[in-house]
């Protein structure tokens, strides 16, 4: 998805007017990790964490003041949501045992993950939904909403794919959730958190350089939302060579930062004035910073700035562990959900012996 957006920007130019909003859920089950909960759920809106649950506390913790408005209006809904998460916790434990058997594993540390959600473009109204399952950092199973079939990239997932494909009612339910209910929940949460999620905070832009032979870094920080465009220009023309764009990273205060490096090894310093860094963010005028050697902060006197950047990287690494983000590029009470298996999750062979439980879907949705 990000690669596609980058390609379109190269072809058609930068456009920060359209905003794609997202509602995401991350389910992480673990085995053999004594310092990490056996089960964690993180819910996010526009990449802002709004809910957290784990198997140690077995309670939903809201991370934003506006995120619990539904719970305040209907106190019983919080308890129902908690019970659903406890149910998912048990399902994840069963799935962990199932996958360890399928992959012929006994001990060691293992992680089973589910990531699902939806996106909504507030300009043209288009939506997109997805559901992906992973095991030990590798793809295991994913839903193709176009064909309403499941994709099994490894042979250990093939029996589950066939079983899920066969339950057409369940797959139709999934389509309805991802194309309608999830989007409705997203719009509702966007309305609750409008003052926070739809605010604009102007970035601070600095030029950094570790040593005279190092690339010059255009560092923008403190901006919100995260949909920013940062690029270098020479003589008014955007550079696609000599540059190394970085990822947008979160700051500890809910804002974001990004760095774009410019390599000037073969450029004499008298030509540096032809270069400038441009930052574009919806709702503010473009910020243009000329490449002036006098304004470059170096490693000697600005270690605190470089340390701040590294802190952002550390935040990302820690957050990735908490939410169980998949290593690859990329709902609703259980009573209402059509399940593709019977309540007895195990099966029998021809001799009546119990086989390993089947891989189970987790219930999806906000409440």
UniProtKB/TrEMBL annotation:
Region (Disordered): 334-367
Pfam families named among the record's database cross-references: C1-set, MHC_I
Polar residues bias spans: 343-352
Transmembrane intervals: 305-328
Entries under SUPFAM superfamilies matching the protein: Immunoglobulin, MHC antigen-recognition domain
Assigned keywords, A-Z: Glycoprotein, Membrane, Signal, Transmembrane, Transmembrane helix
InterPro entries given in the database record: Ig-like_dom (IPR007110), Ig-like_dom_sf (IPR036179), Ig-like_fold (IPR013783), Ig_C1-set (IPR003597), MHC_class-I_related (IPR050208), MHC_I-like_Ag-recog (IPR011161), MHC_I-like_Ag-recog_sf (IPR037055), MHC_I/II-like_Ag-recog (IPR011162)
Signal peptide extent: 1-18
Stretches assigned to the Ig-like domain: 203-288
GO CC aspect terms: external side of plasma membrane; extracellular space
GO biological process: immune response
UniProt similarity note: Belongs to the MHC class I family.
Protein name in UniProt: Major histocompatibility complex class I-related gene protein-like
Organism: Gadus morhua
């Amino acid at each position: 998805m990000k690669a596609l957006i980058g390609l379109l920007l190269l072809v058609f130019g930068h456009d920060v007017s359209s905003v794609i909003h997202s509602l995401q859920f991350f389910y992480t089950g673990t085995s053999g990790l004594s310092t990490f909960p056996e089960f964690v759920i993180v819910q996010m809106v526009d990449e802002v964490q709004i809910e957290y649950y784990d198997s140690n506390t077995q309670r939903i913790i809201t991370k934003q003041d506006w995120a619990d408005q539904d719970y305040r209006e209907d106190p019983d809904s919080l308890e129902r949501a908690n019970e659903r998460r406890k149910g998912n916790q048990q399902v994840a434990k069963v799935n962990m045992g199932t996958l360890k058997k399928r992959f012929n594993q006994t001990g060691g540390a293992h992680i089973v993950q589910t990531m699902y959600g939806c996106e909504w473009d507030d300009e043209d109204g288009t939506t997109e939904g997805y559901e992906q399952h992973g095991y030990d950092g590798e793809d295991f199973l994913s839903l193709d909403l176009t064909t309403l079939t499941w994709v099994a990239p490894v042979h250990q997932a093939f029996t589950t794919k066939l079983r899920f494909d066969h339950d057409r009612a369940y797959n139709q339910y999934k389509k309805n959730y991802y194309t309608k209910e999830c989007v409705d929940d997203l719009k509702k949460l966007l309305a609750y958190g409008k003052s926070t999620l739809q605010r604009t905070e102007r970035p601070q832009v600095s030029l950094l350089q570790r040593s005279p032979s190092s690339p010059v870094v255009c560092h923008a920080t403190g901006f919100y939302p995260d949909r920013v465009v940062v690029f270098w220009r020479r003589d008014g023309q955007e550079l696609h060579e000599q540059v190394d764009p970085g990822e947008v990273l979160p700051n500890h205060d809910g804002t974001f930062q990004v760095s774009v490096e410019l390599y000037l090894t073969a450029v004499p310093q008298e030509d540096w004035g032809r270069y400038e860094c441009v930052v574009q963010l919806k709702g503010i005028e473009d910020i243009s910073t000329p490449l002036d050697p006098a304004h470059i902060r170096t490693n000697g006197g600005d270690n605190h700035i470089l340390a701040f950047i590294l802190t952002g990287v550390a935040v990302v690494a820690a957050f990735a562990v908490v939410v169980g983000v998949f290593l690859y590029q990329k709902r609703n009470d259980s009573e209402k959900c059509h399940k593709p298996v019977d309540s007895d999750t195990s099966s029998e062979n021809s001799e009546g012996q119990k086989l390993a439980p089947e891989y189970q879907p987790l219930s999806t949705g906000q409440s």
